[in-house]
Amino acid sequence: MITYIKGRLIEKTPTKIIVECNGIGYDINISLNTYENIPDEENIKIFTYLQRKEDSDILFGFSSQSERSIFQQLISVSGIGPSTARTILSSISPSDIQDAVWSEDIDRIKSIKGIGLKTAQRLIIELKDKVELFDKKDIDLSGENFDIKKEALLALSVLGFSKSKAENVVSKVYFENKDIELQELIKKSLNKL
């Protein structure tokens, strides 16, 4: 599999880029999120996912490993293919997808073109335990303090709570008040566990 391509950016549109590497031009499908995060510099590194079909091979590109990871998690959900996953990533950011899954925000996921109620429910159920916190350096978190969430999750896991249940509760408490202090986040999460 092709993990990443490092080369010269030849063309950049909201749906695809062409990267030349060692004399070969790679046509790579991208999401709007990747389009916004790829610099207009000549030399770039793009993380990739190769979809093999009977009649073609299609490359999908991502500005970060975290975005590629959420893409792979999305296509693992029954009924979501690479094109739908790309549409999801074009509609909302990877961190918003993570938050919607953690907080079981079906309406947020349903608002994406091509995603109905059943697919939104299936996506939340199947990804609930799979979605990990993104690496802060990989993704623009719009100033949100995700270190507090990580610290709270670590504290709750040390106290013996299951990771999936703790993630759900911490996420809900955090998004009710994003200015919350670490101790308060842990206390409120404990009250809900």
Task: Report, as a whole number of angstroms, the end-to-end distance.
Answer: 42 Å
Largest sheet: 5 strands, mixed, barrel
Strand order of the largest sheet: 1-2-3-5-4
How many strand units? 5
Which overall shape is indicated by the principal axes computed on the Cα atoms?
Answer: elongated
- Annotation field: number of helices: 9
What's the CATH topology name of the largest domain?
Answer: DNA polymerase, domain 1
Strand share of the residues?
15-25%
Low-confidence parts: 133-144
The CATH homologous superfamily name of the largest domain equals: 5' to 3' exonuclease, C-terminal subdomain
Q: Provide the residue-averaged pLDDT.
A: 85
Structural class: alpha+beta
Oligomer: single chain
Tally of distinct domains: 3
What does this structure look like?
The protein is an alpha+beta fold and 193 residues long. It has three domains: 4-62, OB fold (Dihydrolipoamide Acetyltransferase, E2P); 65-127, 5' to 3' exonuclease, C-terminal subdomain (DNA polymerase, domain 1), CATH 1.10.150.20; 146-192, Orthogonal Bundle (Helicase, Ruva Protein, domain 3). Helices cover 47% and strands 20% of the residues. It has helices at 32-37, 65-75, 82-91, 94-102, 106-110, 117-127, 146-158, 163-176, 182-192; strands at 4-12, 16-21, 24-30, 43-52, 57-62. Strands 1-2-3-5-4 form a five-stranded mixed beta barrel. Helix 7 (146-158) packs across helix 9 (182-192) and helix 8 crosses helix 9 (182-192). The chain is elongated, with a radius of gyration of 18 Å. It starts with a strand and ends with a helix. Residues 133-144 have low confidence and may be disordered.
